[in-house]
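Quick start: read one record
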Amino acid sequence: MPLPISLQDVRAAAGRLAGVAHRTPVLTSRRADERAGAQLFFKCENLQRMGAFKFRGAYNALAQFTAEQRRAGVITFSSGNHAQAIALAAQLLDMPSVIVMPADAPPAKLAATRAYQAGRADSEVVLYDRYREDREAIGRRVAAERGMTLIPPFDHPHVMAGQGTAALELMEEAGSLDALLVCVGGGGLVSGCAVAALGLQPGIAVYGVEPAAGNDVQRSVARGEIVRIDVPDTIADGAQTQAPGKLTFEVIRQCVRGMLTVSDAQLVAAMRFFAEAMKLVVEPTGCLAAAAAFERVVDLRGQRVGVILSGGNVDLVRYGRWLAGEPD
């Protein structure tokens, strides 16, 4: 099947994001290299606007709205980072936003989303129970009632193309890479990055990394069709998706070399490494790709490896407990 996005779409997204999104740094660490047995290049999307890569896809999607769509506004559903990204992008583009968020979303992410909407009576957060209610159904209903445009968190070509600009920038700065490790929730980041990376360097091996408790994409790839699972019990709240999207699954199936998993304990170890060795705050989901490298889940010995750190939005109280090894 033809892919839903191309390298040209990613390049076009980069043009829209120029001067709006941060060109986040690419950092290296001798200690990280020793731990992984490879030369690692970290793309620090934890330092992106609103604290995660999600801003790239959100802004790229909203920037392509018609005047009529902008007047009516945007609606989305998200556990946190895409919520903040849409709210900020809507603020920058002067349009209403409605964000459907789980009631148990991290308080910091909920507060930040509402802060981006502050001052607009036509914008709001709608809370739901992630274990009993269908966020997509709520989003479709509100979109129909208010005439808003629904932009999902990952299964949309404009979102996917925007996310791919992270890999585009990484490879422009780091040069030729043997492999690329990417965090995976619903697959928007890995699909965009895979298309960008393979478009620039056809021989590169792209790997996606999920929490072991939420390996819906790994299961889907193994079965050759989309598999839906229960809400995963993992500290990686940004990867508590239950199934990949139709578009993202097709890209992953064709372009991603393999799907890997790591445990919550391994995510905590990676968070602790970044805090101690690199002075970086990275959220659990943002550590998925790095944890796979540190734990040598796949053999990357002696290779040049790009690693996406996808975000840094974490509740500081829980973060402190995790780093201290205390019960959550």
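The chain has two domains: 7-51+157-324, 55-150.
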